[in-house]
Amino acid sequence: MSETFKAILVSRDAEKKQSVTVTDLTDADLMEGDVTIAVEATTVNYKDGLAITGKAPVIRRWPLVPGIDFAGTVISSSHPDWRAGDKAILNGWGVGETHFGAYAGHARVKGDWLVPLPQGISPHDAMAVGTAGYTAMLCVMALERHGILPDRGPVVVTGAAGGVGSVAVSILSSLGYHVIASTGRNAESPYLINLGAAEVISRDELAQPAKPLAKERWAGGVDAVGSHTLANVLSMTSYGGAVAACGLAGGMDLPASVAPFILRGVSLLGIDSVMAPKAVRLEAWRRIGADLDLQKLASLSRTIGFDGIIDAARDIVNGKIRGRVVVDM
Ligand code: NDP
Question: Name one GO molecular function term (predicted).
Fold first, then answer.
């Protein structure tokens, strides 16, 4: 008899009403792919919260095992780059959206989607970083490519107490930037300062409709929030600065004017982690291995078991999760 493993399955009935169950699967139930992996660690990202609660149409194939990222050990492979026993990380590529994802004991995916676990990083650490942290690194790399280095002036991070935000604060401060962390949770100021923020500001300062141009406050930023927050961040960015936009926790709209672009030469840098090419992923994970302080990483993450995933998914869409949640399977 083949081995069974626990999985979360999101289903939809004829009226398109969504339900979430915990079930037993076998490898025969998994979708097509050339590498089968024992999932050792995964995480709960904002997108996983949207998928499990059904708050946004993340899932586009029914029923589906959600979970957009994992780290684990290859069980079997017909892909030339991967052999049984190799340690690998997966982020995105539609996993947890259209392809069975991380919230199961085993996953089967395309070998081309996987990147090797960096030296010195455990599967648990990799998922403390997770897609949120890897996206934060993509944002930092985009700012650097645009010449926004520490000597250009402060950088702002919005949604700072969340997953992307916490890792962005941590990486940017380790690299020597003066980080201004924007949060709606003022009680998290000590946490953000411990991660390396030089200043903490209230989310309210950026929540009102933005003026076309406002006083220049920073050379750049990492925005996980969107909407009025991103519009304000842009209007407060100094001449020639750049903002990496990766999130929509505050809304998908962008009620901004072109003034920052045409009068201050500000650039808006779009960040997508899901379909990012492999070379970019490899560089991001190499940089995570090199630039992320593992002690800080431990301080910004907490660990739950498989049974805690559904509650954590509900909490993250309600803005109740601080930093990162790692799931040890
Ligand atoms: P989290 O929920 O961990 O963090 C989001 C943070 O945004 C919250 O902690 C909160 O920070 C802030 N926030 C939440 N709601 C609001 C609101 N209504 N107005 C203003 N701020 C708000 O999520 P993640 O860090 O995992 O993801 C952040 C965003 O980035 C999400 O939109 C996610 O979908 C997106 N994302 C995009 C990726 C990409 O490839 N582009 C990849 C990964 C994530 P605080 O309490 O500090 O104010």
Answer: oxidoreductase activity
Tell me the C-alpha distance between 277 and 99, whole Å: 18
Pocket of ligand 1 (CB under 6 A): 45-47, 131-132, 135, 159-165, 183-185, 203, 224-225, 229, 246-250, 271-274, 316, 319, 321
Q: Which atom of ligand 1 is nearest to the CA of 135?
A: 42
Specify the residue with its C-alpha closest to ligand 1, atom 23: 46
Q: Up-side HSE of residue 156: CA atoms within 13 Å toward CB?
A: 30
Q: What is the pLDDT along the chain (329 residues), one digit of tens a residue?
A: 579 999 999 999 999 899 999 999 999 999 999 999 999 999 999 999 999 999 999 999 999 999 999 999 999 999 999 999 999 999 999 999 999 999 999 999 999 999 999 988 999 999 999 999 999 999 999 999 999 999 999 999 999 999 999 999 999 999 999 999 999 999 999 999 999 999 999 999 999 999 999 999 999 999 999 999 999 999 999 999 999 999 999 999 999 999 999 999 999 999 999 999 999 999 999 999 888 888 888 899 999 999 999 999 999 999 899 899 999 99
Structure tokens at 43: 């995480």
- Using alpha carbons only, what angle is made at residue 23 by residues 327 and 273, rounded to the nearest 5 degrees? 45
* Prediction pTM value: 0.94
